[in-house]
Amino acid sequence: MPVRQDGTTPREYESSGPTFANRIKADPASIVSVSWGESEPYDCVVRVKAGGVRQTLYKLWLRESPRQVDEILAGQERAARLRASLPHGERRKQPWGPL
Q1: DSSP 98
Q2: 4-24 per-position pLDDT tens digit
Q3: 79 CB neighbour count, 10 Å cutoff
Q4: CA neighbours within 13 Å on the CB side: how many for 11?
Q5: Cβ pair 55, 33 in contact under 8 A
Q6: What is the residue-wise DSSP string for 6-72?
Q7: SS3 88
Q8: pTM over 0.70
Q9: Which among 8, 28, 86, 98 could bridge 90 via Cys, Cβ 3.0 to 4.6 Å?
Q10: For 37-96, how does the pLDDT look when each residue is reduced to its tens digit (9 = 90+)?
């Protein structure tokens, strides 16, 4: 847990992008809500359920618009469905691009 220079524990602290990405990859269903700002860079507030009751609020600033993010996520879902539909021996080959 992060600690401030004066020794107290902050209620809000900075988190790295990889930390947020790993949490989402581990459990995509943990996203409780997402809200977007109107201008670029787009500020995005994501509420993620961590554990039984506790929720973590992430504030992000993205260059991509909400529409672009939706397109990226939809492409990843299509690729994952395609990969899951292939026989096990062919899943290692990636003719459809990176997942």
Answers
A1: -
A2: 666 666 666 667 777 777 777
A3: 15
A4: 0
A5: no
A6: TSPPPSS----HHHHHHHHHH-GGGEEEEEE-SSSSEEEEEEEE-SSS-EEEEEEEESS-HHHHHHH
A7: helix
A8: no
A9: 86
A10: 888 888 888 888 877 677 888 888 888 889 998 888 888 888 888 888 888 777 765 555
